[in-house]
């Protein structure tokens, strides 16, 4: 492969991952900021607000974990298919 294309693809992948991480970071920061504002306005509701924020972040973490497991599962299936075809080709 052309070295220029390889370098450009690595740079593009890095930019894509970097830019893709900005959105969730801004979203989580906004949620945390709003929670702090809510606690400042109504200190007696701190427990409920904190529980909602914790629950929301736990749901996000579970979703990310499931996505990673699905991706690992898909990758392992494709590797299994590749290894089966290699072993079958060796038998022939």
Automatic annotation (TrEMBL):
Note the Pfam families from the entry: ATP-synt_C
User: Where located?
Assistant: Membrane
Specify where it is mainly localized. membrane
- Give membrane topology per the record: Multi-pass membrane protein
Q: Which residues form the signal peptide?
A: 1-20
Keyword field: Hydrogen ion transport, Ion transport, Lipid-binding, Membrane, Signal, Transmembrane, Transmembrane helix, Transport
Residue numbers spanned by region Disordered: 67-92
Q: Does the keyword Transmembrane helix apply?
A: yes
Q: What are the residue boundaries of the V-ATPase proteolipid subunit C-like domain, all occurrences included?
A: 11-47
Where composition is biased (Basic and acidic residues), the residues are 67-83
Q: Which family does it belong to?
A: Belongs to the ATPase C chain family.
State the oligomer form and interacting partners. F-type ATPases have 2 components, CF(1) - the catalytic core - and CF(0) - the membrane proton channel. CF(1) has five subunits: alpha(3), beta(3), gamma(1), delta(1), epsilon(1). CF(0) has three main subunits: a, b and c.
> What function is annotated for this protein?
This protein is one of the chains of the nonenzymatic membrane component (F0) of mitochondrial ATPase.
What is the official name of this protein in its record? ATP synthase CF0 subunit III
- Lineage start: Eukaryota, Viridiplantae, Streptophyta, Embryophyta, Tracheophyta
């Amino acid at each position: 492969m052309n070295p220029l294309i390889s370098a450009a693809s690595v740079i593009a992948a890095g930019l894509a991952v970097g830019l893709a991480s900005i959105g969730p970071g801004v979203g989580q920061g906004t949620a945390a900021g709003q929670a702090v504002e809510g606690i400042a306005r109504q200190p007696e509701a701190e427990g409920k607000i904190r529980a909602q924020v914790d629950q929301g972040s736990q749901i996000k973490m579970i979703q990310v974990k499931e996505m990673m497991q699905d991706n690992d599962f898909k990758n392992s299936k494709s590797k299994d298919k590749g290894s089966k075809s290699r072993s079958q080709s060796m038998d022939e």
